[in-house]
Amino acid sequence: MRRIIRRKLSGQVLGVILCLVGIAALFAVFWKAWSSISTSSPNVLSSLWTYILNEQVDLFSTVTIKLVYLSIISAIFVALGLVALAFSWQIFYLSGESVLLQCPYCKNHWRARRAEGWAECPHCRQFIQPQVTKRN
Questions:
Q1: Are 57 and 67 in contact (CB under 8 A)?
Q2: What is the DSSP string of 35-67?
Q3: Please, what is the end-to-end C-alpha distance for the chain in angstroms?
Q4: Could you tell me the pTM of the whole model?
């Protein structure tokens, strides 16, 4: 069987944009947290989690949001981006069987991968609608 992968450009663009926004937000969260706690404590991981759970950040000078909510939202954006990328692919499987076609004019036979609506006869070079004589 032959596999054909078809990609939808709109789904891929949406997926990449969502992933980039999510990764940028996660990077901003960890940049802010790491710059504040990297030199203050010997146990870096517990200090990082404590800082992320308790600290707030100002967005657009009017909205304050906790870093933990921002990190959850950015993780959701990354997950939605990956889902959009996964669903932007369509995979089709074509059977590998061949058919025996016959030209209605010269009555010669030839094999093709699939029955075509219109084709050019390889023997008389006429553009015809071939007849299917046998499927294998």
A1: yes
A2: HHHTTT-S-HHHHHHHHHHH-EEEETTTEEEEH
A3: 14
A4: 0.62
